[in-house]
Amino acid sequence: MTESKQEAAGKKPSGKQSWQDRKLKKVVRDDIDVISRKTLDQSDFITMLNTHDNVLHRLRMTMGRNKNITFEKAQEFIERSQQIREEINLLNAEMCELMDWDYTPPRGFPNPLAGNANREKKVKKSSAKDSPEAKEVVKPLSGAT
To answer: Is the Cβ–Cβ distance between 50 and 37 less than 8 Å?
Structure first.
């Protein structure tokens, strides 16, 4: 039943329906992103990221105001957070490379394996030039001029 039919019939919306309605209302907010999950362990990541976002926000808002949260300690946590993000970016790039997929990192992050791929291409090109087959092809061409 639609919401208006339920109200007209005097029925209370089901728990699942009201949960979905609350989620749909949140989606239009500027500070909400929708994350799709395809594996069960992603729920753990999503929950941890939501917690991390809230804790990091509170840390930044209270550093210097709370005697337990010094600027140095806050900076240490922020740097560790950045290192973890870079590690996840590297992990994603390595998995994509293993599956021969092109990896497009999130905005603001470089592809950590882009330098490796360029070096491998140069090595392959230089080794192809130095191979005996390449020298045989080059000799007749250079002797013809």
So the answer is: no
What pLDDT digit, counting tens, does each position of 13-37 carry?
A: 676 778 888 888 877 888 777 777 7
Tell me which residue of 31, 63, 68 sits closest to 50, measured CA to CA. 31
The b-or-e profile of 54-67 (16+ CB within 10 A means b, else e) is eeeeebeeebeeee
Tokens describing residue 113: 């394996």
Residue 107 identity (one-letter amino acid): R
Q: Is the pTM of this model over 0.70?
A: no
CA 39, 100, 96: angle at the middle one, nearest 5?
Answer: 40
CB-CB contact of 111 with 90 (8 Å) = no
Count of other CB atoms within 10 angstroms of residue 144: 6
Closest CA to 60 of 68, 49, 71, 51: 71
Place of tokens 């291409």: 121
User: What single-letter DSSP state applies at residue 129?
Assistant: H
In the structure, what pLDDT confidence band is assigned to residue 105 with cuts at 50, 70 and 90?
A: very high
CB of 105 closer than 8 Å to CB of 92: yes
